[in-house]
């Protein structure tokens, strides 16, 4: 594997899931593979799970992870070509990516969207610039439009917990106080479209996601109808896509409750706002698998790093 910027970089998805589950049982089996190799983790935005699980994955493979909070600690990076850099940015991505490539064998990047400039977000300016100007493989730790480490993790978790061959999986929008990105929902959709599941999306009107990502997946605006007989309820807030980045609805009628969940398992990428997105009674019950889901972040990242290490020259 030469990079991991999208779920589609995984060529055989079901095989990858099984291999990741094998790594979970044998986390140190390949602890020599990454010896003397360095993983650089660059964060333009906050993180708990991605930061720690990706480092843990690198350590399990014998790699040396090094981490930088780019927004807080590095020079301001310029991403536009031909800019006269006489304002706030001090270093161009051309130099920054080339320099970091000399220190690292793999570079992982987290850079969220603006949620104000749709065209810029959809161009994936930060991630694409690293792919273009770095000379080593790039891993996406959540970009403007995708969170493929999370989507892969979610597929692993559903495979691990499913009780029937073809479970019903519902992606349900839930309210939130802030405008949130589409990346997690996009990659979850991509992952579910790559699996043998009965997959449905539900959200209030006005929250339709990118139609190119939705494809033929059914969208139901009635949450109760969508949740009927679900085996897994994956809950996530996102801001409007058409009315780009806007919060149109904070209606707590969409909060996930124990009653709505029924016999289904509850999933969320975390962090989650209790009693806004989902009530305590769900998170504090055996129906919630969010902690196991977060644990699987390590093995999703470990599978990705292993595949890239195996292909390094
Ligand atoms: N789910 C997830 O990516 O968590 P963090 O933002 O804490 O990394």
From TrEMBL:
Keyword terms: Amino-acid biosynthesis, Arginine biosynthesis, Transferase
Residues in Aspartate/ornithine carbamoyltransferase carbamoyl-P binding domain copies: 11-160
Aspartate/ornithine carbamoyltransferase Asp/Orn-binding domain residues: 184-305
Lineage: Bacteria, Pseudomonadati, Bacteroidota, Flavobacteriia, Flavobacteriales
Gene: argF'
Cited Gene3D superfamilies: Aspartate/ornithine carbamoyltransferase (3.40.50.1370)
Binding site for carbamoyl phosphate: 47-50, 75, 110, 147-150, 269-270, 297
Residue stretches spanning the membrane: none
Entry's family note: Belongs to the aspartate/ornithine carbamoyltransferase superfamily. SOTCase family.
Reactions accelerated catalytically: N(2)-succinyl-L-ornithine + carbamoyl phosphate = N(2)-succinyl-L-citrulline + phosphate + H(+)
Quaternary organization: Homotrimer.
Pathway: Amino-acid biosynthesis; L-arginine biosynthesis
UniProt entry tagged with the keyword Amino-acid biosynthesis: yes
The species this protein was found in: Jejuia spongiicola
Name of the protein in question: N-succinylornithine carbamoyltransferase
């Amino acid at each position: 594997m030469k990079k991991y910027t999208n779920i589609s970089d995984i060529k055989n998805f079901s095989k990858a899931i099984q291999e990741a589950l094998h790594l979970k049982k044998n986390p140190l089996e390949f602890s020599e593979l990454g010896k003397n190799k360095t993983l650089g983790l660059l964060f333009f935005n906050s993180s708990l799970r991605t930061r720690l699980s990706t480092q843990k994955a690198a350590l399990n493979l014998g790699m040396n992870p090094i981490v930088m909070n780019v927004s807080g600690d590095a020079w301001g990076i310029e991403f536009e070509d031909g800019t006269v850099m006489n304002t706030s940015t001090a270093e161009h991505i051309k130099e920054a990516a080339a320099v970091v490539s000399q220190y690292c064998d793999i570079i992982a990047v987290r850079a969220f969207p603006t949620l104000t400039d749709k065209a810029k977000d959809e161009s994936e300016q930060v991630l694409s610039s690293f792919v273009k100007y770095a000379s080593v493989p790039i891993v996406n730790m959540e970009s403007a439009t995708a969170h493929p480490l999370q989507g892969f993790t979610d597929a692993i978790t559903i495979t691990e917990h499913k009780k029937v061959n073809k479970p019903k999986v519902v992606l349900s929008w839930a309210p939130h106080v802030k405008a949130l990105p589409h990346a997690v929902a996009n990659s979850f959709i991509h992952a579910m479209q790559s699996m043998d599941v009965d997959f449905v999306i539900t959200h209030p009107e006005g929250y339709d996601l990118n139609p190119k990502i939705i494809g033929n997946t059914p969208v139901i605006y009635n949450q109760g109808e969508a949740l009927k007989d679900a085996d897994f309820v994956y809950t996530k807030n996102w801001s409007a896509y058409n009315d780009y980045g806007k919060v149109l609805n904070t209606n707590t009628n969409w909060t996930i409750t124990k009653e709505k969940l029924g016999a289904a398992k509850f999933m969320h990428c975390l962090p989650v706002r209790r009693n806004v997105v989902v009530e305590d009674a769900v998170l504090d019950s055996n129906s919630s698998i969010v902690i196991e889901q977060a644990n699987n972040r390590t093995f999703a990242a470990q599978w990705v790093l292993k595949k890239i290490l195996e292909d390094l020259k």
